[in-house]
Structure formats: C-alpha cells, structure tokens
Fold:
Amino acid sequence: MKRVLVLAVAMIGLVLPAAANAGAFQGVVIAKNAKPKAIVTASANGTVRTIRAPKSFSKIGLGALVAVHARQLPDGTFAAAATKQIRRVKHARVQATVVKRAGQKLYLSAGNSIFVFGLRSGAGAKLRPGDRVTASASFEKAQLFCDAVKPVGHDDELELEGIYVSTEEGVLSLAVHGRGLVKVSVPDGFDLPALKPGDEVSLHATVESDGTFTLVSLDNEDAADGSTGGDGGVDMGDQLFTVTGVISSLSSTSVGVEVDGHPDPVRCAVPGSVSLSSFAVGQAVEMRCKYADGSFVLVKLSPKTSDSPGSGDGSVDVQGSITELNPTAVTVAVPPLPEVASVNQQDKSVMCVLQAGEDLRGFAVGDLVEIQCDYSKALGHYVLNALTSDNASLEYGDDGVTAWFDLNGALASKRTDGVGIKVEGHPTLVNCAMPAGTDLSAFALGDSVELQCNYSDGRWNLASLSSDSAQVNLE
Structure:
C-alpha cells in the first residue's frame, strides 16, 4: 500500500508523482515531520523531495540549505545516507499542485508531502484545487510567505491523507492537520471499508470542475497497520475515543495528552462547565472525548496510578515560547490552540532540567521552539532531551550532546582563542572557541556578522563567521 507523509509547516495529505531518483542533491528545507524524522526540501529549480533523515533531523531547521546523499524508496520518498547543512537562506522556490486556498494560507502538494505558504491579502485568489503552479516564498518567523505564484497547468486527480471523521449523506469528511475538514463525495454504490473516527486513511480522488473531490479508492491505514487500539493507547468507539498517556498541555479550554505511538499530542476541547484545576502537566491520565460540531470535546479525565497500563514515566513534546532560561533549566510556555482559545485562557508552561553538557547559548527568552523532555522519577523533574528553533538545535542522545546554532549580531569580541557577538534578546555575548592562528583581520568590532557554531568536545566551536565583506569557514 502506498503511504504518504503528511508534514507541518501545515498539512493536508495530497501528493504528486514522485521526483526522479537522485543519488546526491541540494535543497532548502521547507517543512519537517517529527514522526518519520523527515525533512522536505526544494531545489533551485523547484523540485520538492521528502527525505527521511533521522540522524540529522533535529539539527536542521527551516530555511537551511542542505546537501543530501540518499536513495529513493518505493513510496517516492528518500532515505538519507548523509545530510550536511551548508548555510541558511531566506527564499525558496517550488513546483507544486494546489490543494486549496483557505483564508491567508495556500496549501500545496509536491514530493509526497504537503506544505503551506502564507498569503498576503488577496494573493492567489483565482487559484483552484488541482492547479499546477510555480511559487516562491520567503522565510519569516518560522513560516513561509508567498512572494509570487504562477499557474502552469492543472491536475485532475490527487491523493489525500488525513484523519477520518464521518460519512454523512454520501459525503466523507477528512480532518487535515487537525484543524480543517476536506469533504469528499462518495459515489453511489461505493463500498466503504469499516471506518472509525480517528482512523488514518489515504484516498485517491478526482478533482471536479468546481474544485470539489470525488472518491475513487480508499485505504484505512490504521486497519492495515494494526495501529489502532490496544498497544497504540487508543480505544475508538462510536464517535467516542479513549486515550491513556501523560498530560502535555493544559488550560481552561483545552487539554493535550501524549500517547505512545502517536506523533502529536491528542487534544480535546474542555467545556466551560468543567474545571481541570486538580490536574497538572506531566500527570498520567485516561482521557475520554467525543466528536461533536467539528471538534473533539472532553467527556472524562481520570488520573492513572503508577501501576496503571500506559502510565509510564511520561514525556512531553510541545511547541511554544521560551519564558525562562538559565544554566540548569529551560521553561517553555505552551500557547492555547486557536480553535478552542478564549480571551480568558491561561497559557501553561513546561520546565525541563538540563542534562550534563547541555549548553543553550544559541537560544534566548522569547524564541519559538519545539521542546522534548522525559520525566525522571529519581529527580522528580522533566529532563531536557531536545530543543529546536529556526536558529538553533540541541539533542541529547546515546553519544551525548549534538548541537548547533546560526545567529546574527554585532561583532563584540575578537580573541586569540575565540570570538563573541552581541545578539538581540541575548543578555550576554554569544561566544565560540576557535583554533589559535585563525585570521579575523578582515573583521572589525561592530561589524554586522553571521556566526555559525557547532558543539563538540565539550565546547562551542566556530564553524563560520561572515559579514558583507569577509568570511571565515572552519568546517
């Protein structure tokens, strides 16, 4: 069965024919997907590829120009043998197919992945599902904004992948990226397989002249993989489901639970009459929710004792903004979900203690990050495993710390053994070591520079330093 990766920046589950096989290529990272540890790149001519790169996934951020050695897999994605970040760029170009335009977002499909460009007011208003386009975009604040888009043709068939919601009056509803619905007409006489709300499905559909979709074939990927229920931590019922796991986010209007085998937390809206003040982030729970009015709504939340199935030690993997940073811990505020937010909602925070060797000098308070932590019963705290932003990455693995950062600022220190820059938002200079004899004579204090450093041998080491008129590269 063909499987299609559904990727953030934002996603929707459509796919184009696979790119041609390639042994080595370069591309700009335009999207990432944590579950298969995959990055999506766009080459200079706009070719989009999905690359499974588990060893380097956490080190590479959006906007990175990477060199890749890989082999093509049967599903059209690539398995990376080696991936190297060259530098960061501010623009990308793609050849893709339009999935839909929703508000100020343009959903595009290419290279077995889905990604989204933000739109300026009125841009792309005439585009329709199935239109083939060439598009360029700029990286701004952890997302891509469309600079230009030009139609070059049209596709009459597409593949969709997402979460099955319901089938009513001959129309199948598919949740894409957890935030919207795609409606697919089911032809009379089509024999749908047994489906439950929450099942991951992939389907082939035709694009009609009015931009709607008509079902041609459908695969229930959860049924094929046996990933629903039991060991997956999810028990689906008639418009109801129950999960066991650990609370990863909590507010007056929503609750998220980390569940084994699921790449993202399972989130449910909290009714206004319900108070969750007795619960806390990191607590093992059983959560029961129902599907109603286009969203999942909490029915019951119960604490799980330490010997309950699926309670475990707990872990969190959330996105938010750094609110506190010191040599021993980092705290990230998790924002409310837009679809259940209210003006009275209070954001919740996750604090993780640093492990030996973890140095977060590439990060600052206010940075938008993804944080991954495991709960330590011995310490009674969450312990940091990985922290990633657009400009920095740190991951703690079996071999210790792997980390890098790429920051812009003013050159403030030149020494025989290192260099330091002043970066907006950082309270102290950001310093990196360098070999004795490194020639920085072409740089002057006060120059606007880009500093790239890697962590190795227990310290931050200079990888490159560049300004408008000079460059030193030690990689």
User: Anything to note?
Assistant: Confidence is low (pLDDT under 50) at residues 1-22, 224-239, 305-313, 337-347.
